[in-house]
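To the structural biology subgroup,

Please find below the input and predicted structure for Type-4 uracil-DNA glycosylase, which we are adding to the shared reference set this quarter. The sequence is reproduced verbatim from the submission form. If anyone notices a discrepancy with their own records, reply to this email rather than editing the shared folder directly, so we keep one authoritative version.
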Amino acid sequence: MVMAARTAAEFIPDTADLDELAASAQGCKGCDLYLDATQAVFGAGSGAAEMVLVGEQPGDQEDKAGAPFVGPAGRLLDKALLAAGIDRDRLYVTNAVKHFKFTRTERGKRRIHKKPSRTEVVACRPWLIHELMVLQPDVVVLMGATASQSLLGSAFRLTAHRGEELSLPPVEDMDVLDFDPRVTVTVHPSSVLRGPPSERDKAFDALAADLRFAAGLLPQKSR
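Predicted structure (tokenized):
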């Protein structure tokens, strides 16, 4: 007998209340990441957001704080949004995976980010899909390969499609989406921080340009 893959679907309540969803995420056992993480880190921002930014997973500081994009990558994202002329208070930010995956340093004092597996990304995807169904944004910005492949498929290559307007494909459980947002992709802000110092300004400017492009996809009244 083949066992069905575990997913978060059974832990998601039938509600359109983001606060209820966030509370329910704390009890999610759709994959094993909950065992080591401090807490689930749900999305945050305006419930009326017309643009949603999706990253990979919470980092060390996000895991401790229980909020997305509050660490170094979040601070760089704030700068990039400012450079792009976008008000973060009008956005909703979330991650493809809601629990922090990490390894410890040899002495165990530091937790180092570890990329989520495809199985973990797919297991957590029902949360992201439900967030999008509740929010019904006009534009979705997928930041980084993990977020992009979560919704656009494992074969998707981010670098080949930056600066393009895309659509969500009818993949697996995404056929439940009853709206068609404009989608675009960019790098995750953490990649700018990890890159060579000599290339950092160029990478930052490219991120800001991608965000500016995303803002241009919003309905005229929203800009």
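Summary notes: The chain has one domain: 10-217. The chain is about 35% helix and 10% strand.

Regards,
Lab coordination
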